[in-house]
Amino acid sequence: MEEENDLSISPIDLSKTLNPRSQKKHATMIERLSNLHHSRLNQSISRRSDADSSAPCESTQAFLNRFADSKRSVESEIDCLRFISNDLESNPQLKSGLEKLSISIADLEKLVAENSYFLPSYEVRSTLKAIAELKGSLESVSLKLVPRKKFSFRNKLAQKDPANAVKESEISAKESNFPVNGGDDAAAAASAEKSRFETRDSPGFRNQLGAVLVKQFQGFESGDFALSNLESCEIRLKGRLRALFVHRLRNCRVFVGPVLGSILIEEAEGCLFMLASHQIRIHHAKATDFYLRVRSRPIIEDCSSVRFATYLLVYEGIEEELRESGLAEDTGNWANVDDFRWLRAVQSPNWCILPKEEQVCTVNISDLENQR
């Protein structure tokens, strides 16, 4: 009975029965366990704090939540505009509201571009599709509220030189040697039509054969630049520009300094491009090599036999221009290509990494004189 009573003694009572040496060991062990517990607790709190303060762009879910909130806000404002009078005199803020919505949609597009390096391909495609739908809704509301006659300056520009407009239309419709696959694809046709309009209105190099074309941009150039209907040409664009549109190039070599916005390429065959930009989209290209430095992942559609490598262009002052354009760092995204026509989990057969032994050497265009 005494033994049973001894076994039921509490730990506190038991510690009192220990000799001084054992009590000291017991106290040391308790202190060590307590310190270990507090250390683990502090580490847990620190990790939780770091997770809470981490950049939202590193979390797919955080990005999707932010994108959804912004999208709902734009949709709500578009719906409100549907009930506004289309009389600009009675509602002078209407045009300003449309412009702000357009800027908001552009900010959403920029958000996707800046975070596409970690987003799954499916999320990139779905968010870009949502942005396209927002643009369509805004355009529909704009046409309803502000008739086209209010923006007649585009028609005046077209009437400025009707001969050139007819000539270029004939080139686009009849003289093209670049057949577009999937002609029944309305989205691709609309995109191509938009690109032709942009290249027609922007300054640039057009309709040249076997020429060396050089352009020096000074400071932060405003506006866009276009390369259209060029064959067997070498193009050298030094300095910074806002955006670049490339349409229908064959057997050309194109060297371009930093582009602050985006680059759109449509219908290129047998070409070499060296480009640095925040966003690059490539449509209907084949047998073409791309040497890129890009913040977001390059996007290709309806392409075949296209290869990618890192940016190898140098000229005097390019390092500073790249730094001021936010392109100083090679993110490695040139090797993370999204093929929007290839939805399988395996590697797309339409693009590959350009083998080292087939890459060109670093191209230096520092000593080239301007021809325009």
Explain the overall architecture.
The radius of gyration is 30 Å and the shape is extended. Strands 1, 2, 3, 4, 5, 6, 7, 8, 9, 11 and 12 form an eleven-stranded parallel β-sheet that branches. The protein has a two-stranded parallel ribbon with strand order 10-13. The chain contains ten helices and 13 strands. Helix content is about 45%, strand content about 25%. It has about 375 residues and is α/β, with parallel strands linked by helices. α4 (about 60-80) packs antiparallel against α5 (about 95-115) and α4 runs parallel beside α6 (about 120-145).
Which terms summarize this structure?
about 375 residues, alpha/beta, eleven-stranded parallel beta sheet, 13 strands, about 45% helix, about 25% strand
